[in-house]
Structure formats: structure tokens, C-alpha cells
């Protein structure tokens, strides 16, 4: 809300820094909550649901911005946007803090027996309840040397380059010849594509076993086609290039897949925290890097910026398959440990895994 009071670059930069610092906790927090409340099979759909609301928020925000843009008050329209949406965010933040519990064990609206069941149903995840507050240096080293975690960060980085580039999405659309208010409305289909693809991806990954990275790979194909349309079609073909912009809407599925893998494939309180921190730092760096490829002298085509986005989508696709290969090798090693074991022995190993999960063991040691 204080952004509306800024009248200089220094003030705006300071407020935006604080805004970024507070926003940085949202996605890691949601990842932690998802891992605490739902089983591995359920987490993909749940993650897709809350990630899809980025598109829902963008859709509703676009309509609000269009309406607010017609306000003729004493303030500039953009200031009303920050004041109104900022106030809504503050109110919802208070509601969330007061009513969302930090663990199934602390839910006030469940009976004691129901709380026990809520904890036991996620025990098979072998990742505990996420309540460990002990810092373990060995888990930091394990996270820093885990190839899968390193690649998760790289995927986050290349995905964010495109996200940072889309900060110029309105300028790209406006460059097609639309007015500012028309440009606002032209963002609606992009938001719709985001919501539909994220929910669709969540449905597929929850129904088809071991499909998340394949789904994330397929989701990069429309943005690749979209960037090619934007870059290769003639500047006068504004509708064809606009369709290219709308096709970019499936790219957030790649980040949704990363969030799901963070909550299901990484165990150990410290290790998961380090992995989440690494992934989101890479994401922030990518968001900083993305806009740097968009030079004002290249307006309205922004050739280098569009090419940078294209490279990000292609690298995302390739890294998804490299990561899947690593997971396949790891699963084969685990399957080999079960060879020759009786059903009773396998069941006992599962029980031991659940206990180790609650004792803050990592995915490598459990």
C-alpha cells in the first residue's frame, strides 16, 4: 500500500525490496504446508490447485485494473490499484495467520483422535511432519552435493528467466498496436491458459504415476511455439503474435512441478529448508536476469528478450528429462534393495522408514 505514496525511484525501490522480502516466504511456506498435510499421491493435485490461483489472481487482477483504470479521482489510477489490492492482501494475511494451523497436530477443529489420524495418514511419505527445528550441518552438505537438488535450482532459474521476461508482457502486447486499456484486457486469455494448464497438469500428475516431469516437459512445448510465433511472424501480424503470447501461459507448470518435487522427494528438515532456499534464490536470480534481455532500443519486437525466453523454455525441457533420469536411477537402486525380501520384511522396512521420517532422517539415509 505504501507504494502509492512513493514519488521517487529511491522510495519505490526501497518499498519494492521490502515487498519482495515478504513475498519470498509465500511459496516455500505453501510447499511446507502441502508436505505436512497430504500424501505423495495427493500433493500433486493440491500443489496444482494453489499454484493455479496465481493465474486466477492475475485474471481477477486484470479485470480490477481495467475497472480501476477508469477512476477519475485525485490520485493516479495506478495508485488506486496498489491501495485497493494492498488492503485486500493485508486483511487476507491476518485471516490466514489466525486460522491456518502450522501442523495437523495443532488443528483446533479436529478431535485428538482425528489429529492422530491426520498425522498417521502422511507417515508413509517418510518425510515426517516438517516440525523439526534442529539445524543439522550434515544435511546442509547433503543438500549442497545432491545432483537432483542442484538441477531443481537450475530448472527454477531458467523458468524464472521467462517469468522475468513476461514482466514486459504488457509492453510486448502494447507494441502490437493495442491501447493501454486494450492491452490489459488482452492479458485475460493468458491468465486463462495459466489456470487451465496448471489444473490440467495437476489432474494428470495425480492420476498417472511418475508423470510429473513428463508433464512439465510437455508444458514447455506451447511456450516454445509461442516465442517462435512472436519472433518470426511479421510485426504487422499482431493477432498471430498475440496468440504466441497466450501460448506462453503453460510455462508456470514447470515451476509447479518443482514445488511438488520439493515437498515429496526431499526429506530432512534442514535439507528441505536448504533445498527450498536454493530453488527460490535461483528463481529470484532468474527473475532479475530475465528483464535484462529486454532492451528499450529493440522495442517493440524485443528480439533478444524473446530469444532469451525461448532458450529458457528449451533448457527447462532438457533439464526436466535429466532430472527424471536421475530419479529413475535412484528408484532402481531402492528396488534392488527389495529383491529377495518377503512381504513381511518389506512391511517392516516401511514401518522403519516411517519412524525414521519422524526422526528427521533425509531421503538419502531413509
UniProtKB/TrEMBL annotation:
Location (main, coarse): membrane
Matches recorded under Pfam families: MFS_1 (PF07690)
Domain Major facilitator superfamily (MFS) profile: 1-332
Keyword ATP-binding among UniProt keywords: no
Transmembrane segments: 48-68, 80-100, 148-173, 213-231, 243-262, 274-294, 306-327
InterPro entries per record: MFS (IPR011701), MFS_dom (IPR020846), MFS_trans_sf (IPR036259)
An example Gene Ontology CC term for this record: membrane
Keywords: Membrane, Transmembrane, Transmembrane helix, Transport
Single GO MF annotation: transmembrane transporter activity
Descriptive protein name: Major facilitator superfamily transporter
Amino acid at each position: 500500500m505504501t507504494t502509492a505514496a512513493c514519488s521517487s525511484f529511491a522510495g519505490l525501490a526501497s518499498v519494492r525490496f521490502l515487498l519482495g522480502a515478504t513475498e519470498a516466504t509465500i511459496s516455500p511456506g505453501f510447499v511446507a504446508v502441502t508436505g505436512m498435510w497430504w500424501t505423495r499421491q495427493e500433493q500433486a493435485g493440491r500443489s496444482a490447485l494453489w499454484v493455479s490461483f496465481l493465474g486466477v489472481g492475475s485474471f481477477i487482477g486484470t479485470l480490477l485494473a481495467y475497472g480501476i483504470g477508469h477512476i477519475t479521482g485525485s490520485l493516479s489510477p495506478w495508485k488506486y490499484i496498489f491501495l485497493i489490492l494492498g488492503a485486500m492482501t493485508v486483511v487476507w494475511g491476518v485471516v490466514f495467520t489466525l486460522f491456518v494451523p502450522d501442523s495437523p497436530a495443532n488443528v483446533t477443529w479436529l478431535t485428538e483422535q482425528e489429529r492422530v489420524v491426520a498425522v498417521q495418514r502422511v507417515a508413509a511419505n517418510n518425510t515426517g511432519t516438517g516440525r523439526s527445528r534442529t539445524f543439522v550441518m550434515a544435511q546442509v552438505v547433503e543438500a549442497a552435493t545432491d545432483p537432483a537438488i542442484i538441477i531443481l535450482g537450475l530448472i527454477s532459474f531458467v523458468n524464472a528467466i521467462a517469468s522475468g521476461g513476461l514482466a514486459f508482457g504488457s509492453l510486448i502486447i502494447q507494441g502490437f498496436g493495442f491501447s493501454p486499456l486494450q492491452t490489459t484486457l488482452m492479458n485475460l486469455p493468458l491468465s486463462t491458459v495459466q489456470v487451465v494448464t496448471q489444473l490440467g497438469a495437476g489432474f494428470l500428475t495425480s492420476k498417472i504415476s511418475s508423470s510429473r516431469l513428463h508433464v512439465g516437459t510437455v508444458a514447455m512445448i506451447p511456450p516454445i511455439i509461442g516465442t517462435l510465433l512472436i519472433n518470426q511472424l511479421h510485426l504487422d501480424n499482431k493477432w498471430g503474435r498475440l496468440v504466441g503470447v497466450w501460448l506462453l501461459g503453460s510455462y508456470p507448470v514447470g515451476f509447479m512441478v518443482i514445488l511438488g518435487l520439493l515437498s515429496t522427494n526431499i526429506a530432512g528438515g534442514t535439507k528441505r529448508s536448504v533445498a527450498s532456499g536454493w530453488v527460490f534464490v535461483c528463481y529470484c536470480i532468474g527473475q532479475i536476469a530475465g528483464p535484462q534481455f529486454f532492451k528499450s532500443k529493440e522495442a517493440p519486437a524485443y528480439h533478444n528478450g524473446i530469444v532469451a525466453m525461448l532458450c529458457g523454455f528449451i533448457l527447462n525441457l532438457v533439464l526436466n528429462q535429466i532430472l527424471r533420469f536421475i530419479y529413475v536411477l535412484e528408484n532402481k537402486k531402492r528396488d534392488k534393495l527389495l529383491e529377495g525380501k518377503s512381504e513381511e520384511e518389506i512391511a517392516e522396512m516401511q514401518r522403519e522408514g516411517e519412524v525414521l521420517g519422524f526422526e528427521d532422517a533425509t531421503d538419502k539415509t531413509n
